[in-house]
Structure formats: structure tokens, C-alpha cells
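3.2 Worked example (two chains)
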Amino acid sequence: MDEGILEWLHLKNVARAGWVRAGVEAPESVAAHSWGMSLLALHLCPQHLDLSKVLSLCLVHDLPEVRVGDLTPHDDCSTKAQDERQAMKDMAPQWLSLFDEYETGSTPEAVFVKQLDKLDMGLQAKVYQQEQGIDLDEFITSAKQRISESTLSSYLD
């Protein structure tokens, strides 16, 4: 069996660090976040964008976190970009161009997916607030500030 596949699947076991830091009980995994983004993409992707590319970007954008972890702005991120790119190059070189496209926001699809990344975070914060009664407004505010497309940001109102 391709050993890479088994490593990729470990993304299911990487907890989202921001939720852990905020005290969320049983926080989602990074893989669950990527699934959430993909579901949002299926529902919200504008007709003029390549849905296949959007879904591919959603699925691979956080794959390097299997090796480098889910770093947040509260962590030392001085080498995050280099470490993630190297991990992607080593783990899944066939998707390195997709990863680079996402990281640089070099296409309309990548720009859209970056906004879905924040939308999923904001919506997940709302879910946790409802389920667990904890204050996660900082995540919702952060998401709203980083989403420029009003159609997407309206989901956080």
C-alpha cells in the first residue's frame, strides 16, 4: 500500500489548535475543517469558478499540518510557510502546485477558498457557541474581518 495515503489520513487526528486553546470540548480535526470547507464550496461556489479546482484546494490546503501541526497566530509562525511547503513537497508532491496556488492566492479559486477557510471557522464557532455555551466571538469577528465577499460574510451575521 502507498504509505503516503496512511500519513494523509492522520489529518483526521490533528485537532484544530484554535479550538483547543479556546477550551472547546472535543474540537474538530483539521480534516473535519477541510470537509466543512468542501461542503461550503459545493453549496456556495460561484458559477464562474472551477468547482473541481475549488474542491481540490479545500482538500489539500491544510495537508502539511499532518507533519507541522495546526499553527495559529498565537504560535511562533516564523517558519510556518517554509515548513508547510517542505512537508507538502515531501508528502504529496503531486499536489504541491495546488498548495502553492492556495498559499499565494494566485487564482480566483484560491482567493475564494481562502475566504471559505475563514467562513468555516466562523460558522464552526457559532456551532460551538450553541452547543457548549462558550464565548467564541473572537473567531467570528476575525472571520468577518478577513472575508471580503459580502455574500459569504453575511452567513456570519
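3.2.1 Second chain
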Amino acid sequence: MTLAGLSVAGARRALAAAFRDAGLDTPDLDARLLTADALGLDHAGLVSQADRVLAPAEAARLAALADRRLAREPVARIRGRKEFWGLDLAVTPDVLVPRPDTETVVEAALALLPDRARPLRIADLGTGSGALLLALLHERPAARGAGTDLSTAALTVARDNAAALGLAGRAGFVACHHGAALAGNFDLVVANPPYIPTADLAGLAPEVRDHDPALALDGGPDGLDAYRAIAADAGRLLRPGGALVVELGIGQADAVTALLAKQGLTVAAPRPDLAGIPRALAALRP
């Protein structure tokens, strides 16, 4: 698209209109974030410089970002950043972009462990960018944690995010399948496992299908493979009285509840996300 001769505000409006016409979900937000990134402005700068005409190089740079979004590349991928639980996280093609729905897992975990001063041990299985682990360590300053992932590239992203947030001293990362390399005795285990049935991957939105790593999406034929593995290992990983909190895919609450209960865990009612969809499931080791 062409933005030459437009003001900062005019370019932002042009992006929002183009994104809206393309059927994108959040056209105004996408336009604001990309305009701010292209011009190196914060929200106050967007307001104070609203009437300034874009320099040719700025117009070209912003147009290039807009074209990427119109091609259905997610804004977080374009920016290389995503906010999660108020934390600014780097994201690369090696990790899942953290979703607001996943904050429901953080909410459920914090509700189970309300004492901020308690010296907790936390494990995040399939940590990706480190979002869950780092959010929990941020909220529980006496806690220490370990994040696992099969992808060593993802673990590099998580380590870098931990360092950038000043949490590297309390967070360790290890390459393994779920909790296979962990010794156990954790107060809390969290996971946002891959839960999309394999046959459903092709029908996902392009932003997800074409840009999130398949390793973080593919849950096997029925979407439950990762839950089976996590449930089978939960008794070893958790100390007595410890809690497991997992994110759920749509319609999976009953099946995952059954898997966890079969392993002797006491399962609570699922916690809904902001859309009312059961999104986080907590279970306690007796």
C-alpha cells in the first residue's frame, strides 16, 4: 500500500481501514502498534505527532509492515514482541505467540498459591517463550522455576526473556519432552500443551497455521497426546499437595478431567477465559 504524503494520524487511519476491509480481527489496534513500531513512537508520541507528515522513508517502512499484516502475518511476528501478563516478551518463529487466553492459567495458578512470600518450586512444561513461568515468577518473588521444551531454539528465547526481565537467577531451562528431565517435588506444574487435533491444523487461521510452530500446536489424532503424557507423569513431578494447571482446548474439559482423575489427582472445575470458554484446569496431588 502507498502512504506517501500522509500524516502520522492519516497513515494510521489508512492502515486501520485497509485491515478492516481485509477482515482482520483488530484493525485499529494492529494499525496503532505497527505505526508506533515503524516510527519509533510510544502512545504519547502518536498523539503529539499526529499531524506531522511522514518522511518518505517512514512511509515506505510503514507500508512494508502493513503489507506483511495484510498477508496475514501476525502483528507479534512482525514486531518480534508480545505482551503477556504485563510483561514484554520477545517472540521468534520458534515459539508460540502467547495468547490472552493463556493468562487464565496464570490466574488459576495464583489463586491456588496466594502466599507471595512462599518459596515455591514451579515447572512449566513446553515453556516456549517462557510466558507462563516468567509471569508466575514475576508474581511470586520467592519462587524458583524450571521451563522445559523439546526445541532448543525455543529455550534460547525463554532464557533471553528471563534475562531481559531480571528473572534469570530464578529460572532454569532444560531440553526434554514435557517433564522427563525434571526430578520432581514441585509445588506447581503448569503447561499450555499442543492440543489441536492433527486433522484440524489445516483449517486454522493463517496467522496460526502458517506462523506458529507445529510442535506447539499438534496434539495428535484427538488433540490429547500431551495431556496423556503430562497426566501420567504428574504424580512423580508434584509433591504431595502440589498443583497441576493446564490450558484446555475448546471442548476438552471433560476428556482432560478424566485423564487427570484416572491418575489419582483431585480435579477442580475448569476456569473460564474472558469469553466464558473453559480454559484452565487445575488438579491437586493428594
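3.3 Remarks
DSSP finds eleven helices and ten strands in the chain.
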